Amino acid sequence: MPSLPPAEIGAPFSEIDTPALLIDLDAMERNMALLAERARAMGVRLRPHAKTHKSAIIAARQAALGAVGVCCQKVAEAEALAAGGVRDILVSNEVVGARKLRRLAALARQIRIGVCVDHFEQIALIDAAARDAGSTIDVLVEIDVGGRRCGVTPGPMAATFAAEIARSANLRFGGLQAYHGRAQHLRTPAERKAAIGAAQQGVVDTVAHLKAAGFACTTIGGAGTGTFMLEGASGVWNELQAGSYIFMDADYARNVSDEGANAPRFEHALFVLATVMSATSADQVVVDAGHKALSNDSGFPDVWQRPGLAYQRPSDEHGVIIVAPGVAAPAWGDKLLLVPGHCDPTVNLHDWYVGVRDFGTPRARVETLWPIDARGALG
To answer: Which one, of 94, 185, 190, lies nearest residue 147 by Cα?
Structure first.
C-alpha cells in the first residue's frame, strides 16, 4: 500500500514534508520539449525510457509532444504503465521465465508490445506464449555495440535470428536494439563520439547482413541522454530511447557538455527535499534523507545551490552534510534540496512525485501529486 503523499495540492513549498521527491515542473517541461524538438529536427522517432520516471502520467505528456511510445525494462513496469493508459511499449530487455512470458503475451492482447532477444531458444518460448494468449509480439534482435552486457555480436548472426523470428507464427521481426549504455557517462565529447562511432560501424554491418537476407529494419533503437545527438545525427538509428533527460541527475551533470551551438542544455528537475534533523556542531549537520531516500550507486547527491555543503556518510535514515570552513551551517529545521546522483533508482524508492510550480521562488506551490506507478516493478 502506497504511503500518504508528503504534501497537499496547493500547499506552499514550506509545508512539504520530508524526505520528499520533488519535480520542478517548469524545468521538466522544458527538458521534454527540448528533446522532442531535437528528435523532430533530426528526423528520428522518440521512444523515451520510462524506467527513469515509472509514471503513466509523465509518459502521456511525452506522447503529447510526439513520442511514439515508451521503453521499459521489466514486464511489471509495462503492466503498470499499460494500466495507466500507455498503448505502445518496448521492453528493451530480454525476458526470461515462463510466468513472465505469459504476462507479456497477455499484455500484448491489449497494447502493442515489443521485446528483445539474444538467444535462439527464447524466440520459440515467446512464440509459444503469444500463441497460447492469442496475441502477436514484436521482437527485436539485440546486438552488443560496446556495452558488454546483453546482445549478440554485430554481423551475420542477427540475420539468422531475424529468419527464426519471421518463421514464428505469432511474432513480428521488429528490427534491432543497439543501445550503448556504457557510452552515456563517458565524460568528454571526444570519448562519447568515439564510442558511438564504433557502435555505428557494428550497426551498419548488421543492417547490411539483414538486407542481404531480405530483412528490413523498421526500428533501429538505442541512444541515451548522454549520446542521443550522435545517434540521431548518424543516419543509422531511427528511434531514440533517452530517459534521464527529463530529470537529469548529478552524475549526468559531470559529463562535459558538447560545446557546439546546437548542444542541448537540460536542467536539473528532480530533487529530494530533506530537513536538518540534527545540528550539534559547526562543521556538519544531519538530514533525514539516507539510503532509503536516495540511491548512491553513482555518487552522493549534490546540495542544490548551497556552495560549501557536501553530502557524505549516508546511513539508512540519515545523511551527513559536511560544512566547509567559513561557510555558515544550516540551522536545525532548515530544508535542503538534494540533486540525486542517479535519478532512476532514486525514483524507485518513493511512492509519490510532488510537482512544484514556480520552483525556487516565493510563489512556489504544490501543483500535482503523482503516484509512481511502476515503483518496485522488478519482475
So the answer is: 185
Q: What is the Cα–Cα distance from 199 to 140, expressed in whole angstroms?
A: 17
Q: Reduced to 3 DSSP states, what percent helix, strand and coil does the chain have, rounded to the nearest 5?
A: 30, 25, 45
* Separation CA 28–CA 351 (nearest Å): 19
Rounded Cα distance, 136 and 119, in Å: 19
Q: Are strands 319-323 and 302-303 parallel, antiparallel or unpaired?
A: unpaired
Rounded to an integer, what distance in angstroms lies between the CA atom of residue 378 and that of residue 306? 35
Cα 299 to Cα 106: distance, rounded to the nearest angstrom = 39
218 and 342 in a single domain? The answer is no
- Same structural domain for residues 248 and 271? no
CATH number, residue 287: 2.40.37.20
Task: Tell me the Cα Rg of the chain.
Answer: 22
**C-alpha dihedral (299, 224, 36, 61), degrees to nearest 10:** -60
CA distance 335 to 271: 12
pLDDT in tens, 196-214: 999 999 999 999 999 999 9
Q: Which domain holds residue 345?
A: 13-21+266-371
Query: In a 3-state reduction of DSSP, which class is residue 262?
Result: coil
Distance CA 378, CA 309 (A): 35
Q: What is the pTM of this model?
A: 0.96
- With b for 16 or more beta-carbon neighbours within 10 A and e for fewer, the 307-327 pattern comes to eebbbeebeeebbbbbbeeee
Q: 178: which 3 cell numbers?
A: 543497439
User: pLDDT tens for residues 308-364?
Assistant: 999 999 999 999 999 999 999 999 999 999 999 999 999 999 999 999 999 999 999
3 lies in a domain?
Answer: no
